[in-house]
Amino acid sequence: xxxxxxxxxxxxxxxxxxxxxxxxxxxxxxxxxxxxxxxxxxxxxxxxxxxxxxxxxxxxxxxxxxxxxxxxxxxxxxxxxxxxxxxxxxxxxxxxxxxxxxxxxxxxxxxxxxxxxxxxxxxxxxxxxxxxxxxxxxxxxxxxxxxxxxxxxxxxxxxxxxxxxxxxxxxxxxxxxxxxxxxxxxxxxxxxxxxxxxxxxxxxxxxxxxxxxxxxxxxxxxxxxxxxxxxxxxxxxxxxxxxxxxxxxxxxxxxxxxxxxxxxxxxxxxxxxxxxxxxxxxxxxxxxxxxxxxxxxxxxxxxxxxxxxxxxxxxxxxxxxxxxxxxxxxxxxxxxxxxxxxxxxxxxxxxxxxxxxxxxxxxxxxxxxxxxxxxxxxxxxxxxxxxxxxxxxxxxxxxxxxxxxxxxxxxxxxxxxxxxxxxxxxxxxxxxxxxxxxxxxxxxxxxxxxxxxxxxxxxxxxxxxxxxxxxxxxxxxxxxxxxxxxxxxxxxxxxxxxxxxxxxxxxxxxxxxxxxxxxxxxxxxxxxxxxxxxxxxxxxxxxxxxxxxxxxxxxxxxxxxxxxxxxxxxxxxxxx
Length: 576
What we know:
Blueprint: H1 27-30, H2 37-44, H3 50-61, H4 68-71, E1 80-84, H5 98-101, E2 102-110, E3 116-118, H6 119-132, E4 136-139, E5 145-150, H7 155-164, E6 177-182, H8 197-207, E7 220-225, E8 239-246, E9 250-257, E10 269-275, H9 280-294, H10 305-326, E11 347-350, E12 356-360, E13 366-368, H11 369-381, E14 386-389, E15 395-400, H12 405-414, H13 423-427, E16 428-430, H14 445-458, E17 470-473, E18 487-495, E19 501-509, E20 525-533, H15 537-551, H16 563-569
């Protein structure tokens, strides 16, 4: 074999065996063997059972008697979280253990389905605030009221007072069906398509606090509206029902599933079905049951319904819902029309009965017990006994006679609740922030209030500026819906001009939900390197607002391109 080199052929490598697929913890696929500690403690003892121990043991023996799985887990099933210990800066949030971050006080969340309160209920919450919570109270963007500085010793008495007037904290937190968002003008709006209140009441009557739905993979958020403004942020809930008029079947709901934000935002999707008001509770239960049975439980950061929908798609989800849970097919349905008016209900509006309601804006939901009691007094002074909270941290007083509008609007303004707020006072929301939240990195409420005051002065020369949504969140979890704001701000530590690490925000621009300005929801964009310190926030918002105004067509403000549309198409340098 002169001139040739002998070669030896290597045998082909055997194919690697496929790795066994790791279970996702889906009960109807993988069985119920718990795959992490959260799933284990939920199976060991249902979270609803902790109430008896709070009443009989912990309220008598004090904070130090509470074991960890109850304190950091099951207490949430009754609306209780430990709050942040004062004086711990945001740089230490991710480095300390829960017991190092927490104080021996609780945030207590009062569950207010549909945001509906009587003045008697509002006054009870106000009294609890002043007697047991250091006069604290925040209206949340889930239509709840949160109190702080609550001690475990006082919880049974708080429950007694709330339940005496038909309120409670059942499943206000935890891996359960959370508060049901409802249109704040349900049953009263002159232009309402249908009243969702009976559906909300029926869902709660059947399913609130029942063991069958008290162990879900994660939280489960619901929204219902029958108002054409689509006023319940339906695109970011696990399940939502949006009122519309079906051309053949009459008034009912367009059904959405799988929305949610946090660190992995995903907008919900239409199932393409039409549900009547009579069917809606069964459809709700079917969706919640799919989440319970097929939701991913192995990793908590993948355990929301949006991840299951992303894998299944709406067609499979609909089929499973109909075949395995409803036992009948739902008819196809059209989408609800685009909203033609704002959904925050701020200002004076006519009711269908000839009376009026007034919507007013506090500073980013921050109120107190004294203010809430004064609102109850003001409403009753003109013959009203109803108040509503909104998913935009606003408050409405209902049933006002026309002749009483001026004293009510003046009275609300005197209480710091403005019925005719500036664009930024109207459209700014903020989460709890580092003041109380163990997850937060930066302060939000005071930062937002300061920014509102400065922007009102700085932009006073733009009298017709339409509201720009400004959302501040203290951490990446997006309780304040930063990805769906014109200007969304995610709290983090940033470098200032002196090279120092200080509280600040990553900026998201051009997000929004379906509204009169946009046909469908969309998430905001991020611009590389676009961060702002808390101190520089008013400077940045003024700068980007003036650039928006200078680069869009002048003329009637209603005809101007929206900020979100401009921000999505603008060059990055213009947005900095």
